[in-house]
Amino acid sequence: MIQYEARDHVAIITIDRPEARNAVNGEVATGLEEAIDRFEADDDLWVAVLAGNGPVFCAGADLKAVSSGGGGALSTERGGFAGLVARQRTKPLIAAVDGPALAGGTELVLACDLVVASREARFGVPEVKRSLVAAAGGLFRLAQKLPTNVATELVVTGDPISAERAHHFGLVNELCEPGHALDAALALAARIATNAPLAVRESLGVMAMARGVDDDEAFRLSGAAMGRLAATEDFAEGPLAFIEKRDPVWKGR
Length: 253
Fold this sequence. Notes:
- The chain folds into two domains: 2-193, 2-enoyl-CoA Hydratase, Chain A, domain 1, CATH 3.90.226; 197-243.
- It is built from ten helices and eleven strands.
- The protein has helices spanning 26-41, 63-67, 104-111, 138-145, 148-157, 163-168, 181-193, 197-209, 215-230, 233-243, and strands spanning 2-7, 10-15, 47-52, 75-76, 80-81, 93-97, 100-102, 114-118, 122-124, 161-162, 174-176.
- It is globular, with a radius of gyration of 19 Å.
């Protein structure tokens, strides 16, 4: 139910349950966690793209499977819902959304670092329509990535937001035509992969840890990241390539 492919320095992780609108069951949760483990452990893979097979990115939790007792656990101990939303990661993850991403599907998107969406994509947390709450990150991550009133509207009405509106407010990095979300996400991944991978990871880590801290602590975190990079081979390669007027050859170490 999870497909995994590596192209150059990019991993492509695909939820492959089109017959169930890529809804999350136990097998999907376990498979996603294993895919993230594999990606994080591979020093030659620097960026990952998360996609869904078919016309729906992900419809959230597989409530039919849960109600029938066949869904298994939809969360993992380390990753939370779908093995991903609470997972600690070091490498950038891009959501390629071609079609609706609703409920837990939106929460998967919110767990990613960047979002590419086709104009057919929609995002929403309709849990209140079923006397539930968006407990897999939606209630706080929407407010981190959208204006407060817009996030509140989505949470209390349960109504979805269009890809265009999500792009307007910054939730979506790049809009594309239907059927091209994966290609556009791979192009974005290639732009990231031209950079020093360890510097990208350290930068992501500081951005995450510095959220909500004061400037003194943020400067300390930034300085510590620079110190760690100074001990790597790539730290010397960057200036050397500039002096020699050539493209750098990153080793990720």
